[in-house]
């Protein structure tokens, strides 16, 4: 362990366990599927019995194929079979492999992160590279990949022109707002974006000079307009991919509130509003009120940063604890559709009726990804901010440990020199900026989706 370092040893052990356990067991059953049930449509034979007791005589006379679809009166009483949801039922369902891999990998990433943070707390003078950062970055990459797959399913089909146009239009609008926000975020939000940019470019310039790249070492004097465009493109792309997932969550939220008791309704409402609280705490007005008014002497800059991240962690935990009610409300839509169908007149094809019921179970994995990925992506960015931004929940006064500088590195081509680029003074601004963007997207789309679904349900 002394040769490899504690963090690397933990990573190797975690990778070994992960590769062995993921083929035998998935945490998806424990954290996602447990306690859920879905509805199975009646068979063709059951539908025939429900439609007409004399259908068998007519079939013998007309020599009807028993597997051929037939018309079913919409007001026919239909019984749906309720079954517990398990991985066996979802095997082969679209996005099932993506869902299980994202959940399993994130569980191990959080375990590695927790162990590494515990070690750093007891041994703050240790300078080994914290490999849990790599775990979190890869977890964020997997979640972005899952969002990309979900978005591709919405825009790839030629029949989904409205969804494709909506995503592209939302990307264009959010790009404009992201450019404006990036250029003026320091006026309204506690980001210190300009200071972080200058600090980072200074470090990179020194690093490039050590590499004897003098032609590009002075780029820190250039205008940051290219950085504004790159960050705005990145954030607007993520926002466009989060459009349908967050609207899906608001639909689940609206249905779940109607299906639970008063206490759980309060819990669902608080879960819905927690990202708004976290976002408000990042505004300069609230920061100045809390730190400069003198009313809260026990609150300082470090504790305020910890409070913001703590609220985000509470929000993530609340979303996990209430996931069962949200996801079950989505699966219950099959029963609601049958009840609405029975109030109509006319006929429906038997195969179409079966698809009407089973489609929600077949789309469950995509709906689960839409529910979990936005909040898990925010959690990952928050943990990266906690680590790279040097934010501590417990220890408010940091030990007097000197930071690593380029003068301390004997070999400028070594990995240690690259660690200079991860200086928390320059990293904190970037990850705070990314976290605030995710909170803005979650908050704005959640409010918009709730208003839209409320007005739509009242107009129907």
TrEMBL record:
Membrane topology field: Multi-pass membrane protein
Main location: membrane
Transmembrane regions listed in the UniProt entry: 105-123, 130-147, 167-185, 225-247, 267-285, 306-327, 360-385, 430-452
UniProt keyword terms in alphabetical order: Glycoprotein, Membrane, Transmembrane, Transmembrane helix
Subcellular location: Membrane
One CC-aspect GO term: membrane
Domain of life: Eukaryota
Family to which this protein belongs: Belongs to the TMEM161 family.
Protein name per the record: Transmembrane protein 161B
């Amino acid at each position: 362990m002394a040769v490899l370092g504690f963090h690397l040893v933990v990573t190797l052990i975690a990778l070994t366990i992960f590769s062995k356990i993921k083929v035998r067991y998935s945490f998806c059953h424990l954290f996602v599927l447990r306690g859920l049930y879905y509805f199975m449509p009646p068979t063709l034979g059951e539908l025939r019995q429900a439609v007409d007791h004399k259908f068998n005589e007519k079939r013998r006379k007309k020599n009807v194929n028993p597997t051929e679809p037939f018309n079913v009166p919409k007001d026919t009483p239909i019984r749906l079979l309720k079954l517990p949801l398990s991985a066996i039922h979802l095997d082969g369902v679209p996005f099932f492999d993506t869902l299980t891999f994202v959940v399993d990998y994130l569980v191990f990433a959080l375990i590695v992160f927790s162990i590494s943070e515990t070690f750093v707390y007891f041994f703050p003078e240790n300078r080994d590279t914290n490999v849990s950062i790599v775990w979190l970055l890869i977890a964020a990459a997997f979640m972005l990949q899952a969002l990309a797959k979900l978005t591709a399913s919405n825009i790839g089909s030629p029949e989904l022109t409205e969804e494709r146009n909506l995503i592209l239009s939302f990307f264009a609008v959010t790009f404009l707002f992201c450019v404006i926000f990036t250029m003026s975020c320091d006026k309204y939000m506690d980001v210190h974006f300009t200071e972080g940019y200058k600090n980072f470019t200074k470090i990179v310039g020194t690093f490039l000079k050590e590499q004897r790249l003098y032609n590009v070492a002075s780029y820190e004097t250039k205008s940051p307009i290219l950085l504004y465009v790159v960050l705005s493109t990145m954030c607007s792309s993520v926002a466009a991919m989060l459009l349908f997932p967050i609207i899906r969550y608001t639909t689940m939220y609206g249905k779940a509130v109607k299906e639970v008791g008063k206490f759980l309704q309060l819990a669902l409402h608080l879960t819905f509003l927690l990202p708004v609280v976290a976002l408000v705490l990042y505004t300069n007005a609230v920061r100045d009120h809390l730190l400069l008014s003198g009313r809260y002497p026990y609150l300082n800059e470090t504790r305020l940063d910890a409070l913001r991240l703590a609220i985000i962690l509470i929000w993530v935990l609340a979303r996990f604890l209430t996931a069962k009610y949200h996801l079950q409300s989505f699966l219950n839509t099959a029963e609601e559709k049958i009840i609405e169908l029975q109030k109509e007149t006319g006929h429906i094809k038997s195969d179409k009726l079966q698809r009407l019921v089973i489609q929600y179970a077949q789309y469950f994995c995509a709906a689960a990804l839409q529910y979990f990925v936005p909040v898990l992506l925010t959690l990952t960015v928050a943990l990266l901010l906690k680590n790279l931004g040097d934010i501590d929940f417990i220890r408010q006064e940091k030990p007097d440990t000197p930071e690593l500088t380029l003068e301390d590195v004997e070999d400028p081509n070594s990995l240690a020199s690259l660690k200079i680029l991860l200086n928390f003074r320059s990293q904190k601004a970037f990850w705070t900026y990314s976290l605030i963007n995710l909170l803005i997207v979650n908050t704005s789309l959640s409010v918009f989706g709730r208003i839209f679904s409320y007005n739509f349900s009242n107009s129907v």
